[in-house]
Every structure is written in structure tokens, then in C-alpha cells.
Design brief:
By secondary structure, the protein is an alpha/beta fold. It is built from nine helices and eight strands. It has helices spanning 12-15, 31-37, 53-66, 79-87, 104-111, 124-131, 159-169, 185-190, 200-204; strands at 23-26, 43-46, 72-76, 94-97, 116-121, 139-142, 174-176, 195-198.
């Protein structure tokens, strides 16, 4: 197995570059094939639940081989998997952490200043807490936009207005998530979100392309 390597991993935090989170792919069914054909995705989160740690490691390793150099690669939840991959010289840009995962301060200490760290939120209280971590995290995920069959959050759906309120409250970029489809893109981007995370839409149509100004968000998958 060949690997995608980088001597410096992601230097985006150190360089102060703007992260492109606009078209955010969260893996679901057929993750490898979906990512391989997702040429318009700007950020890829490797998520597969339930999954054994070794299987997540191997899946992430395989996905790292096929992504483009300009696509971000994040590991869901598992800082240890991200660390192990980076130790092998495999390009992993960072992690996305949930509220019950390793504390973000510890994740930052382990992964270093160059890593990208996202944090799940979805309520005003959670966003306010995330604001206290604005110097540690790079973005937050906010959801669910609407009830999602791929992840149970036990939080009420935000809808457009709820998403807008969290964007206005947040001190870091916001990625919307939760049963989102390309047709939702224009209205969501108008709220000020920096990105839209989709699971099933990419499974149905890996090559989908969304833009903030498109009438139908590149087609409803």
C-alpha cells in the first residue's frame, strides 16, 4: 500500500490561511468509493459508526491515498488514529471531536498547532462553551439542521433560523450538518455558515458540486 505523505502535514493554522470547509463530506456507506469520486468535496471527515479502531485506521489510510492535495482530511473522534497515521507520514489534517470525546485542549497538545480541530455543537449553550475554546479549535459543527437518520444527537433541529442564530453567536467558522441536501445549500449559505456537511447526498451522488449562489445547489441528490 502506498501512502500520501507530507513532512509538514497541514500548515494551515500556522500560515493563518482560511480553511475551505464549504463542501464537507462525511463518510457513510461505501466510504472509499464515495471519497474517490468526490472531486468537488473540500473537506472529508472519515466517520463510520460502529467501527473498530483498526478498521477506522485502515479505512483512513486508504482514503488518504486517493484524496487530492487540496482536500482536507479529518478523522472523526479518534485522536489516537490521527496521531498514528501522522506518525507514519500519512497526511491527516486533524480531527473532528464530539462533546464526549477527548477534551480539545488535550487534542491540541497532542496534535500540535498545525492540526485542524472541529467540535460538535448544536445549541446556544454549546456554542457559548465553544467560544471559550476559540483559540484552540478551528471550527464547530452545528446541527442537526433537521432530524438525521445517520446520527442521533438528542438535540432539537435548528432549521434555517436556528442555524443563523448560532452562526451569529459563534466566534469560529460554522459547518452545518444534519440531513442536509444540495437543495438546502443556498438558504444555508445565506445564514453565514462556512460549510455544509452531507452524508447521504454524497453517497447518492459523489460528484455533486454545490455553490452558495446556485439555484439548486448543484442538484438534489
Amino acid at each position: 500500500m502506498t501512502t500520501t505523505t507530507s513532512s509538514h502535514f497541514s500548515m494551515r493554522r500556522r500560515a493563518g490561511d482560511v480553511l475551505d470547509l464549504s463542501t464537507y463530506l462525511v463518510t457513510g456507506e461505501n466510504p472509499f468509493e464515495t471519497v474517490r469520486h468526490a472531486q468537488h468535496a473540500t473537506c472529508i471527515q472519515v466517520r463510520s459508526k460502529p467501527i473498530e479502531v483498526r478498521d477506522l485506521y485502515q479505512l483512513s489510510c486508504a482514503i488518504a491515498e486517493v484524496i487530492r492535495p487540496d482536500q482536507l482530511l479529518l478523522i472523526d473522534d479518534r485522536v489516537d488514529v490521527a496521531l498514528a497515521l501522522r506518525a507514519r507520514g500519512i497526511r491527516v489534517d486533524g480531527v473532528h471531536l464530539g462533546q464526549t470525546d477527548l477534551p480539545v485542549h488535550d487534542a491540541r497538545a497532542l496534535l500540535g498547532p498545525d492540526a485542524i480541530i472541529g467540535l460538535t455543537t448544536g445549541t446556544r449553550e454549546l456554542v457559548e462553551k465553544a467560544n471559550d475554546l476559540a483559540d484552540v479549535i478551528d471550527y464547530i459543527g452545528a446541527g442537526p439542521f433537521r432530524p438525521s437518520p445517520t446520527k442521533v444527537s438528542n438535540r432539537p433541529p435548528l432549521g434555517i433560523e436556528g442555524m443563523r442564530q448560532l452562526v451569529e453567536l459563534s466566534k469560529v467558522p460554522v459547518v452545518a450538518i444534519g440531513d442536509i441536501w444540495p437543495k438546502d445549500a443556498p438558504a444555508l449559505f445565506e445564514t453565514g455558515v462556512s460549510g455544509i456537511a452531507m452524508v447521504r447526498a454524497f453517497v447518492d451522488n459523489p460528484g455533486l458540486c454545490i455553490t452558495p449562489s446556485s439555484e439548486n445547489g448543484g442538484g438534489n441528490a
